Amino acid sequence: MANQHHGKFAFITLKKLAEKAVDDKLIKLKYAHENKRNAQSQLNVLNDYYHEYQQRLNNALSSGIKGSELNNFNAFITAIEQGIAQQKKLLLTLDIKQKQITNELNQSQKSLNTYTTLLDKQHKKLLLQQSRLQQKLTDEFAQQQIARRTLNEY
Question: pTM of the full predicted structure?
Fold first, then answer.
């Protein structure tokens, strides 16, 4: 019986650790999602700048533009294009990280489910043992009562 309690306490400890792991992964996933959302927002801003400055360049070309102004436009647009490329790489990295954390969360959740199932089975087994013991004691008590009645009748 003491061995069963030791096993139960071990599973309870493992379950608590698994719950903490799930909680930790959920927090990491939340931050990963926020980071990805922020990076996407920054990419959207860069894309908006790019389109705005492309439009400004087209307007300037239509109405005439000095060579130095054209160079400035081109340099700025090139810088925005580089920023967009870097932001896309960052988004890809953040997406991979988010998927990795999601996989880790799924694994942690599986572990938690396993320990929960094992504890439930252990609890049901203990209840069954207690029920059988109670039934055995009740049966013994009933047999003793019958034996006493039988002895008292004679």
Answer: 0.71
